[in-house]
Design goal:
Thrombin, subunit H, Pdz3 Domain, 19% helix, transmembrane, single chain, elongated, 30% strand
Length: 421
């Protein structure tokens, strides 16, 4: 055994005649003696395989990395030409479609018409606030009287309009109204009721869009509302808010004039002078009230402005009074048949000062000195509350009252009546 470091070439074997230098009985292959790996001193050589026979399938050649690359200039040129042709074709088609659709200005007329059409039809959902405003606005009018301005709304296609009595006060028998589309017309006074603050005028114009009435008894605190009118002479104004209180009893009127009582719908929609007589509508565009009174910290009417409190006459009451005026020229006033103490008596209710012998209160066994504490479940603080709430109901309505007589509490049903005066 050896590790080969002192290896010696063995003596050469004599050649074998007819052989290949292979000794007899050698276990190696025939050319083992010529194997370069068998003899370290034998010369080395690289043997290449013969070329494949012609006519057969060939393998894909390996690309030469040093070979010159193909130029992309023709491809880029073709893409550029194609893009220019596409852009020119698109611009031509766009111009043709614009001309056919009327969007290219011709002396300035087509552009203006397209703009007005887009503004008139913005594509709002009819149930959205914008859709409700668009639905109601054509029925709202601005009432022009001498030196003043107010609002109103069309309640019939033949031209009847509801507004506030204080809007037409001093206006004479004729006045002018204007509509949201800019058209105007004359109007005449049909009738008025100062105590309820409702008046009816008739516009000299037919086929008018009338509002849709809602039910003021079906609304609730928190319901969204829109107020329409011409506040501060800004015509075609719409403001948004909610119902912030119901049956808010209000006593209003000028010194020395008629005292008006309201069981009003209170809202925080911005309402100012000029909104008077305009409609308060619900989220579906139905009129639920007539904007009439604002509460302000101003020292005078000229300084009055909205502070988030406005009051509307419930439409059920306003509609009933307007129908009376249209039918008879005069409104019926609802009464309970008793006189009450007003001005904060401190009795915690409406104290009856006197009772008419044949009136509704007497028929319900109420007496002078009784203190009515609730009417249809609504708490009363003084006589003003009772007057305002009674006038909200129609004559013939039956209301439940709770009252106190001395130390005893009792209840009764009262059938309200119309004033005979």
């Amino acid at each position: 055994m050896t590790d080969g470091w002192n290896w010696r070439r063995p003596p050469a074997a004599p050649p074998v005649p007819g052989g290949h230098g292979q000794p007899p009985g050698s276990p190696w292959w025939s050319d083992a003696m010529g194997d370069p790996w068998r003899d370290p001193l034998a010369p080395s050589a690289v043997v290449l395989p013969p070329p494949p026979p012609t006519g057969g399938p060939a393998l894909d050649p390996v690309p030469d990395p040093d070979a010159p690359r193909r130029s992309y200039a023709p491809v880029l040129l073709i893409c550029l030409i194609t893009a220019l042709l596409a852009g020119g074709l698109g611009g031509t088609l766009g111009f043709v479609f614009a001309v056919r659709g009327g969007y290219v200005a011709s002396a300035g007329t087509q552009l203006g018409a397209a703009g007005r059409q887009a503004a008139a039809d913005p594509g709002r959902d009819p149930e959205s606030l914008a859709g409700v405003a668009r639905q109601v606005q054509p029925s709202v009018v601005t009432v022009h009287v001498t030196g003043a301005i107010g609002s109103g709304f069309v309640v019939s296609t033949d031209g009847y309009v509801i507004t506030n009595d204080h809007v037409v006060d001093g206006a004479g028998t004729t006045m002018a109204v204007s509509f949201s589309d800019g058209s105007t017309a004359t109007a005449k006074l049909v009738g008025r009721d100062p105590e309820s603050d409702i008046a009816v005028i008739k516009v000299a114009k037919s086929s008018l869009p009338a509002v849709e009435f809602g039910d003021s008894e079906a609304i609730a605190v928190g319901d969204p509302v829109l107020a329409f009118g011409s506040p501060l002479a800004l015509e075609n104004t719409v403001t948004y808010g909610i119902v912030s209180a119901l049956d808010r009893t209000i006593e209003a009127g000028e010194s020395g004039g008629t005292t008006r009582y309201y069981a009003a719908i209170q809202t925080d929609a911005a309402v100012n002078q000029g909104n008077s007589g305009g409609p308060l509508v619900n989220a579906t565009g139905q009129v639920i009230g007539v904007n009439s009174v604002i509460r302000s910290v101003g020292g005078s009417d000229a300084e009055a402005g909205n502070i988030g409190l406005a009051f509307a006459i419930p439409i059920n009451q306003a509609k009933r009074i307007a129908q009376d005026i249209i039918d008879t020229g005069k409104a019926r006033r609802t009464v309970i048949g008793a006189e009450v103490t007003t001005g904060g008596s401190g009795s915690g209710g409406a104290r009856l000062r006197s009772v008419e012998p044949a009136g509704p209160a007497a028929a319900a066994a109420l007496k002078a000195g009784d203190v009515i504490t609730k009417l249809n479940g609504h708490p009363l603080q003084d006589g003003t509350d009772l007057i305002a709430l009674v006038r909200k109901y129609a004559p013939g309505a039956v209301v439940a009252v709770e009252y106190r007589r001395g130390t005893r509490s009792a209840s009764a049903s009262v059938t309200l009546a119309a004033d005979t005066n």
